[in-house]
Amino acid sequence: MHRIPGVKVNVTLLTLLILLFSAHGVALGAEQSGHPACGTTDNKLSSLGAAQVKRGEKARFTDHQPAELIAKLKQGAKSSDPFAYFKPGEKLRKFIGHEFHPTKIYGFLGANLSASGTKFALWAPNAQKVSVVSEYGGWDKHFELEKDDNTGVWFGEVVGIKHGTQYKYFVINLTGKKHYRVDPVSRFLYRGPLPFDEHNPPSSAETRKLFTFWNSVVWDPNQFKWEDDGYRPVPQGGPSMEVHLGSLIPGNPWASYEELADYLIPILERNNFTSINLMPETAHAVPASWGYQVLNLFSTNYRHGNPDGFKGFINRLHKAGIAITLDVAHGHGSKDVEGLGYLDGTQLYFHAGKRGKSFWGTYRYDFGREVVRDYLLSNIRYMIEEFHIDGFRFDGIAESVYRRWMFRVEETNIDYEAVEYYRMANVLAQHYDKWTEAEDTSGIPAVMMPIEQGGMGFLAKWGLDMKYHIRKEVQKPFADRDLFAVFRPLREYGIRKNYVDSHDETSQGNRRFIDIIHGVQNEDERFAFARLVDFHLAFALEGSPLVFMGSQFAQRGWWDERTPMNEKLFLCSGVRWHQERHRVFERFSGEKNKFWLENQHFYPGALHPEGKLIDDQAQVAVVFRTAEDGKTLVVVENWSGQEQTSFKISVPTKE
User: Fold this and answer.
1) Prior bond of 489 cis (ω within 30°)
2) What angle do CA 315, 586, 601 make, to 5 degrees?
3) What is d(CA 81, CA 353) in angstroms, rounded to the nearest whole number?
4) Given pLDDT bands bounded at 50, 70 and 90, which one contains residue 307?
5) For the CA atoms of 148, 108, 302, 506, what is the dihedral angle to 10 degrees?
6) Could you give the angle at the alpha carbon of 138 between the alpha carbons of 132 and 143, nearest 5°?
7) What is the pLDDT of residue 412?
8) 71 pLDDT exceeds 90?
């Protein structure tokens, strides 16, 4: 008899979940799967014109309280002088014509429609000359812009340019070099058809040139009509699937947003997912970057449609009860010529020199510049206001904050300016009641620690450490596995997203989780053990379950942008018993999500693990959970690879 000390619970309902690791661990009929048939800071912009930005002292983690940060983000909004925190000259002030807010630069910079045409504004303080060229002027007529010396902003109105017009800036930079550049605040970037498959491009200088030929597009943000007023996401998003739209539909990497919604929503509904983690849908030059090497944070991905198409995709997901957490790469930007680098001949948005080079060889943002912080913060607000995004996953926190990759952190390497930015980003997003997640490989508790306690204030973190431990242990023989490791860390600040497969784990020479399991005797045992881990991530750990697309039916192999989620693979090919295993796994995964949603033991604030029993010798784990309503859940897991017929467990009883 195994007893758990210190457990005293008033039980009104006791639910016992037992998953035995065997070929019959889950008895689910394939005919119930429901598949379709085969065939079928000071946070102001007053420093815009400064050639050298004066940096303050390095902030300690407790320098600012949330109320102070919120005040900074709101400053100017209720001022009697709408330009109290922004000092344009008289002409630029009249050109703006409305109150300016530092977290809404897209209301002023970029291309904004007017009654008679379009107003253009570009921050390029070191440029010698800036003009607009467009298809409206036959691409050879230059509409010259005027410079405001106080801010370094070039501005002007072009009569006749309307919604849908393509344009670029012609810039003579600091050194006299002439070049055409896209707008850093483009609402839409477009590139014409390429004479080759961009997923398999030929290696040549001409290819690289064609990859960089983009145009900005004037876009009216007010023409789309939303229908999601009553939508409210499940707390913390609920069971989630990570999705890459370019590889979602087999054979159709250029699927429209409408086609993507048609394909994805039934899969999510059938498997009881209530949210997706969407890999970056901002403009990027090559599919192989998966959207993480961003050209422009304000433009949607033209491969699937225009901004209104993306809004329609989100609108349909919301109407289906599905939330969208958008992956944003705010730590680094693309070195591509159409990106933000050296816009006026200097590094306006990024650090210069060695500090400006990221782990991926991209440019690292200069968070010490107020305009850069405002650019990034405005991107968050833009995605909230214009696209109704429900939450944000911030990519590469460790690399941008700690200047290190994978658990190598030294305090002397902390970028306190990056820390301050991410704190402000969390305050802004959470002010709008939006979810914030961190992809952090450092393991530093400060990532989810509340700001008032010295942390960055993220509400959730992807459980990379948990994923690492589980994937490591399952590649060992059963006798050598450390069962304690699959529960580490036992407790953290905030909510953890629990997973073993994501775009990182399944790519670049890695394989999906089901393929790395060692010690099993046959495929039935392999699938049963994979179900056990799927169960473990949802019920035995604090946090919410997350899968990478395809893992809900145990897709095999590895992933890249050319390898789609092929749910028909196990329905329409292979021998029958292989199909059956995938059907059973998906049925189990969907029922697991349903149970998670229907019970109060898994929501934030209702997770109170009252005790754990881990018998490392028998390879059995027991977890007691008690929700706020007093109901207790007992989770039993058999990791031994052997059937357990006489393992006794003491459970709490009603006093």
Assistant:
1) yes
2) 75
3) 39
4) very high
5) 100
6) 25
7) 52
8) no
Return the ∠ at Cα 624 (arms to 618 and 628), rounded to 5°: 170
User: What CA dihedral angle connects 515, 516, 517 and 522, to 10 degrees?
Assistant: 40
**Adjacent-strand bridge partners of 133:** 168
Give tens-digit pLDDT for 184-218: 999 999 987 655 566 666 666 665 555 568 899 99
Can you list the positions of beta strands (E) in 97-165?
110-113, 117-123, 129-134, 143-144, 146-148, 153-159
CB of 375 closer than 8 Å to CB of 105: yes
Task: Using the CB atoms, write b or e for 217-240: b if 16+ within 10 Å.
Answer: bbbebeebeeeeeebebbebbbbb
Provide the pairing of β-strand 129-134 with 166-172: antiparallel
Q: What's the longest Cα–Cα distance across the chain?
A: 86
Cα separation, 126 vs 467, whole angstroms = 47
**φ and ψ at 97, to 5 degrees?**
70, 5
DSSP 288: G
| Residue 496 to residues 112, 246, 627, Cα–Cα distance (Å) | 40, 27, 18
Concatenated DSSP letters of 29-93: -GGGS-PPPS------STTTT-SSPPP-PPPPTTS--HHHHHHHHHTTTT-SSTTTT----HHHH
CA 266, CA 278: separation in Å to the nearest integer?
17
Q: For residues 27 and 611, what is the distance between their CA atoms, to the nearest angstrom?
A: 29
> Is the distance from CB of 150 to CB of 88 less than 8 angstroms?
yes
The two three-digit tokens of residue 286, written as one number: 């090559």
Which helix (H) or strand (E) segment is 240 a member of?
strand 240-243
Going by pLDDT thresholds of 50, 70 and 90, the confidence category of residue 406 is very low
